[in-house]
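Methods — Computational structure assignment.
A single polypeptide chain was analysed. Its primary sequence is given first, followed by the predicted tertiary structure written as structure tokens.
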Amino acid sequence: MSFSSDVKKELCAIECENDCCQRAEAYGILYFGRSFSKDEISIMTDYDFVAQKYKKAIKYLSQCEPEEIVSKSGKITVSVNSKDERIDILNELGYSGNEHTMRLLITNIEDECCFGAFLRGVFLACGIITDPKKEYHLEFDIAFKSKSRDFVELFEDFEASPKMSDRNGINLIYFKDSYHIENILGVMGAHNSFLTLVNEKIFKDVRNKVNRKVNCDNANIKKTCAAAAAQINAIEKLMESGKFEELPPELKELAKLRLDNPEMALSELGANLSTPISRSGVNHRLKKIMDIAAKY
């Protein structure tokens, strides 16, 4: 089962408390199904629980018995075969059936509480959400441009700005911001899926912070190793040229300590001298050694 199917299964288990919300949910799943007109009212889905929810929506609006067909590939099609029953459903939702363009009717989404129920129905009909372990992406695949535009307008009060694109003639309304996807899941009532996404987001954030720290530590280690190698190279150069013994005692002591401890940080070198000095003091002395070596 995919994350998208898990979300839909969770949504299908929700029972509307108010009649207005049940109507809005039914409207969402029918209006954004495969077909919604006097010639055809149907949905095609991979999931039996979505098919059953669609049947329930039809029975709520008309009491008719829809037909269900399962293809060899497992696709489930639920449809209303009687034209009279289709027109009854359209009439119930405010349509005559003779409209040139079936525009979205806000009258079927009466109250603020209805928006979540309506959105739930829309997602069941044409929504897809990617597993948050991979990426943040929620989309609605809508066949008609007018429907997609009307749908986008609904999000103006939701303080979300979905993006729109076209894929093989299908209008895509999508979100890639985790914050808005979280809100949509919450509004639809998919609370378990909401928590799954939030937990994954927290996990990713912690993992990214750890990776950044590890990368930073690795970079610092490489930088320290490179500096130590340059220092050792300078000290060995002085030894080969016979100039090492001419160094002041404090520089000779530090040079020997560096040769014996190439992995030590500057602060550790300073702490292990006969007379401990600060990190900056060690850095200053090593620079002197390298400056002297550069002359030979």
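Note: Residues 185 and 194 are 6 Å apart (CA to CA).
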